[in-house]
Amino acid sequence: MASTKHNPSPNFDEFGFESDPTLTNDDLKPTRPDQRTFSKWEMACLWIGLVVGVPTYYLAGSLVDLGMAWWQGIATVVAANIILLVPLILTGHPGTKYGISFPVLARSSFGIHGAHIPTLLRALVGCGWYGIETWIGGEAIFILLPNSIKQSYMSQTLPWLGTSPLEFACFIVFWVAQLAIVWKGMDGIRELEKYSAPILVTLTSCLVIWAYVKAGGFSHMLSLSSRLTTNQFWSLFFPSLTANISFWATVALNIPDFTRYAKSQNDQIVGQAGLPIFMGAFTFVGLAVTCSTEVIFGRVISSPIQLLGQIGGFTTIILAIVGVSLATLTTNIAANVVAPANALVNLSPSKFTFRSGAIVTALLGIAFQPWRLLKSSESFVYTWLVGYSALLGPIGGIILADYYLIRNTNLSLKDLYSTSAFGDYYYSRGYNLAAMAALVVGIFPVVPGFLQKVGILVSISDVYVIIYNNAWFFSFFSSGCFYWLLSRLTRKQESQPAQDPLLPPAN
């Protein structure tokens, strides 16, 4: 929960122990029973808010552009999210059971100091996405402005800036609007997701109905068949599956940041179970509407923002601004603010709160200059998605192997907040060398494929191409298995400690 002040000497009276002040403040403390306010409906609303956004709109359509049939594109998206649902629920379990956030959970496997490495890697990806999503929101404001304003001298690109002053101003307006929501902390995010979900579903349904009526049905989309041979399809399917898994691999890693507020395990599991359905439904919307534009306007309009601007009309403009803004806000704040903010809090609890961490995240989002990133390469998002999965996959594999295979879901809360050399998570001066080694094992083999993808290496072995195309799978399982093996070899042979008797009463 967002706090406005620090606790210089945290005392977990409700849990019966004191914690080290360098590892704790009000944002890192385990959630109390009265803070467990997320029901299954609110968890589902969180995912609806995350799913309904401009990047998701493109997913299936991009696969069809690459040659898949419409149903193959949607099936690939759904399959990826069914697979991702497993680590989502598994990683969400300790958040609900112990009321701890992702940075605190990472201490159990990486060490109380080593946890900074996975949390900052996750934060870096979040900051990049924060800038990209904020630019999309600002672009919506710009495109939907009156032509008289868009055609002014303020719309001329400045070489040193890389964009026009007007586009940059729209970006900053949206940037500020997001901070107003973030300033209220997790309660503000929960309220935003809860009340935005039905609005987004309604506006999305209206867009589908409009496309269906104007195009005289979806026969054009349904007539799209695959342009790929069997071998070509499978060559495209696996990297596409990896890219779609990577789409939410970020949230799958820091999902404890949300499930720590769930009322029960049942609420977090049932609330998240709808993800494949939500993703399948919304990618169908994106594909159906995009295909319909070719019939309605005589050309394909793949951007929902440009489409809404093309439809025109005062009412449409207002609804478009509301819809695109809500869609981008709900996705960006939940997916790309919470993890970086919590990572900074974990880095220095005495200097950062959730609010100040969110402000730093927002500033780094500007520093990423997303307008330059998005214009640098047509395949940026595709390379971005698969590339960063090599960072996040091994972290997830290590954490899950540690929590389920090594510790049998038993954690000691007091040791998670202790710098004692005798603590269970102190390892070697606060760093778990086994986790560090496993992280390298998962990332290193993917590097040649990434360098080849961005043009640094001209050619690489087919083995490295296959590894890169399956980066998340390879890094997740190789790091997890390697960590488990090292831990079994190096960990003292002792019985698992009994479940911490100081746990919050949530199941």
TrEMBL record:
InterPro entries: Pur-cyt_permease, Uracil/uridine/allantoin_perm. The keyword Transmembrane helix applies. Keywords: Membrane, Transmembrane, Transmembrane helix. One of its GO terms (molecular function) is nucleobase transmembrane transporter activity. The chain crosses the membrane at residues 44-64, 70-90, 123-145, 165-183, 195-213, 233-255, 275-297, 317-340, 352-369, 381-406, 431-451, 463-486. Its main location: membrane. Residues 1-31 are annotated as: Disordered. One of its GO terms (cellular component) is plasma membrane. It is a multi-pass membrane protein. Residues 1-10 have a biased composition (Polar residues). It is found in: Membrane. The keyword Translocase does not apply. Belongs to the purine-cytosine permease (2.A.39) family. PANTHER family: NCS1 FAMILY PURINE/PYRIMIDINE TRANSPORTER, PURINE-URACIL PERMEASE NCS1. This is Uncharacterized protein. It comes from Malus baccata (Siberian crab apple).
